[in-house]
Amino acid sequence: MGSRLRSGGLQKGLASESGGSGKRDQDRSPTLSPPVTKPTMKTRLLRLTPHENIYTLPNILTFSRLLAAPLVGYLVVHDYHAWAVGLFAYAGITDLVDGWIARKWQLQTVVGTVIDPMADKTLMTVLVGVLAWKGAMPLWLAGIILSRDVLLGIAAIYYRYISLPPPKTFSRYWDFSLPSAEVHPTGISKINTALQLGLIGWTVGMPLMVGHGWGGALESGLVGMQYLVATTTIWSGASYLYTKDAVKILTPEESEQRAMKK
């Protein structure tokens, strides 16, 4: 009987030992880690090229000015002069306000340096074409203004292409949250823009002022303004050829700094 007890105790000890070793083996079994997913091409591109926040109040105001351009042209074509002057005044006010807001609250963006002159030139192109078509502006002056803007537009397309980091795809080309180049208007260009806007506003509002007794003086002054704008237009176009840093291509480090500020 004593041998049976010793035998039973030995069997229990072996069983408990084998159970304990099995538990230790389970504890030592390797844990499975979750599968590693490779980043997509889009994720890798976002890491390589920084984006900046383009949805700022100054950019929204600028974009609204861009949308207002064809509407002003429509109003001029159909002789809604009062409405045309009012909407043109809105465009001029937002042109001043958006820059002030961007500077005061540090909301400058690279895309703002592109779409701000684009909005001005779109408004100018539409109204110059419409006024020339209606005979309110000489064709030679319209040709000078439009030729300059076309040449500057071609130059902007070229600089955007050569400054865009690879890969140079169509979607990345038109993604203006990818900063690649900055446009800095020259001093004479700013003066020319103000004079052109003054000339356009003067011409658009002429039908509202002709019947008030000073139409002759206004028409004489308008002719002088046209020659002045022709001179500054040619001068400002040439200034982009000899002015240093009028167009600046951003380095990868500068592009990242622009994006990190937003």
What is the CA-based Rg, rounded?
34 Å
Write down the overall geometry.
Answer: elongated
Number of strands: 2
Order of helices and strands: HHHHHHHEHHEH
| Biggest sheet, spatial arrangement of strands | 1-2
Helix content estimate: over 70%
Distance between the termini: 88 Å
Largest sheet: 2 strands, antiparallel
Number of continuous helical runs: 10
Backbone structural class: mainly alpha
Q: Estimate the strand proportion.
A: under 5%
Question: Poorly predicted ranges (pLDDT <50, ≥5 residues)?
Answer: 22-26
Mean pLDDT: 78
Could you provide a short overview of the structure?
The chain is mostly helical and 262 residues long.
Descriptive notes:
This protein is elongated. It is built from 10 helices and 2 strands; from the N terminus they run H-H-H-H-H-H-H-E-H-H-E-H. With 262 residues, the protein is an all-alpha fold. Helix 3 packs antiparallel against helix 4 (81-104), helix 3 (57-77) packs parallel to helix 5 (110-133) and helix 5 runs parallel beside helix 8 (187-209). The chain has a two-stranded antiparallel ribbon. Residues 22-26 have low confidence and may be disordered.
